Amino acid sequence: MSSRTVVRGGLVITASDEIHADVLIEDGRVAALAATGTRAADAFTAERVIDATGKYVIPGGVDAHTHMEMPFGGTYAADTFETGTRAAAWGGTTTIVDFAIQSVGHSLREGLDAWHAKAEGNCAIDYGFHMIVSDVNQETLKEMDLLVEEGVTSFKQFMAYPGVFYSDDGQILRAMQRAAGNGGLIMMHAENGIAIDVLVEQALARGETDPRFHGEVRKALLEAEATHRAIRLAQVAGAPLYVVHVSATEAVTELIRARDEGLNVFGETCPQYLFLSTDNLAEPDFEGAKYVCSTPLRPREHQTALWRGLRTNDLQVVSTDHCPFCFSGQKELGRGDFSKIPNGMPGVENRMDLLHQAVVDGHIGRRRWIEIACATPARMFGLYPKKGTIAPGADADIVVYDPHAEQVISAGTHHMNVDYSAYEGKRVTGRVETVLSRGEPVVTEREYTGRRGHGLYTPRSTCQYLN
């Protein structure tokens, strides 16, 4: 039996267009759009009609950087694939791309299989995987080719975290050379971890143990240096590069220079860098631990460069790097030693609302909101036009969004499995009302109507921006 839904009367916003249109959904996909009030639109018939009058109708968000159930620092990210994807849906995100982890001494396949086992049958929305490459060797390099063929087309490496995820320049170069040949995209955590470890050791020796010192030792210059080095290694390898969680003016400058040279270099930032700062890291009574993530929060003046980069397309994507650890019992592991605070913050539920607030505040336009949160991440990671737009043939991942509703972000009302909100008390304008995932209602007029296991693993093609 075919199922049909019509979303009527809303302002349909994609990365390229805004039109008052009715959307016909059939068997989980967008079947047609027609301008509201026209004969074509009036001819749409369906068992389910959603009234979107006065609301936006937007593509479901694509969050291309999440860490559900991630092991870190002797503990695990607090959100499971079940709780994390449910929270994502509440926030208007209908696809995540999470990170499977290769442990040193193990194969990529083992890591990928482990993450499939965590996610399968548990997700409320669709999901894909990137692969964290922690151990570059000849077998790893061969496996990269196989993973690209089966739809895991991006590989993350770390210039940070020596002894855990760290790769040296030679390992990075080898992986980049392999990606240049197989069409994969290297994602880089660009911080000089070797130098940072020296500064951490020296800070602790001076008795500087509070959370704010996490930000002081992970210097913006060491993010910029690593960003520059990653760009030049990629240039030598003839490979594209995607730099994750860009936080600092100096790193943005490196990306701008590389893009002006015509290199296939891309940059992502996250809401925490756009809305929070070192003021949060310095909150008293260890409260600053809530905001410990890497790259770290920066002084507020860095936000100007990040917003400008988003407007000029020198930064292309806003993802969350959602990696939540509870304040109680997890962040507290670092009392007396900031280097033991688990690195990561919650945010998968807040991204679409915070970026709409950026529209309200005049930082970006409505179509750019959809571009950086839906369309570009889908294109960057081989999911477009199945995801990231509202067009005939696309998956019916659709959000009815009330641009006038006001809300206060709070741990008391969020759905992430974490005991604090990084944006506690922040007032924002705009709120998700109804969410469809492949045509099925996951959130219906602010009530959760989804189910564990609805979300499907989604293989990806290669990056759709490469020359």
Account of the protein in words:
The chain is of the alpha/beta class and 467 residues long. It has helices at 39-42, 81-90, 108-119, 138-149, 169-182, 193-205, 212-217, 220-237, 249-260, 271-275, 278-281, 302-312, 351-360, 366-380; strands at residues 4-13, 18-26, 29-35, 48-51, 56-59, 61-66, 71-72, 75-76, 93-101, 126-132, 154-158, 185-189, 241-243, 265-269, 317-318, 398-408, 427-437, 440-444, 447-448. The radius of gyration is 21 Å and the shape is globular.
| General shape | globular
Class by helix and strand content? alpha/beta
Fraction in helix = 25-40%
Which percent range describes the beta-strand content? Answer: 15-25%
Mean model confidence by pLDDT:
98
Q: How many strands, which pairing sense, and closed or not: the largest β-sheet?
A: 9 strands, mixed
Count every beta strand, where a strand is a DSSP E run of 2 or more residues.
19
- Measured between the Cα atoms of the first and last residue, the distance is 43 Å
Number of helices: 14
Rg result: 21 Å
Which regions contain 5 or more consecutive residues with pLDDT less than 50? none
List keywords for this structure.
single chain, 467 residues, alpha/beta, 9-stranded mixed sheet
Task: Sum this structure up briefly.
The chain has 467 residues and is an alpha/beta fold.
What is this structure's SSE topology?
Elements: E1 4-13, E2 18-26, E3 29-35, H1 39-42, E4 48-51, E5 56-59, E6 61-66, E7 71-72, E8 75-76, H2 81-90, E9 93-101, H3 108-119, E10 126-132, H4 138-149, E11 154-158, H5 169-182, E12 185-189, H6 193-205, H7 212-217, H8 220-237, E13 241-243, H9 249-260, E14 265-269, H10 271-275, H11 278-281, H12 302-312, E15 317-318, H13 351-360, H14 366-380, E16 398-408, E17 427-437, E18 440-444, E19 447-448
Parallel strand pairs: 1-4, 1-5, 6-9, 9-10, 10-11, 11-12, 12-13, 13-14, 14-15
Antiparallel strand pairs: 1-2, 2-3, 5-16, 7-8, 16-17, 17-18, 18-19
Helix pairs in contact: 4-5, 5-8, 8-9
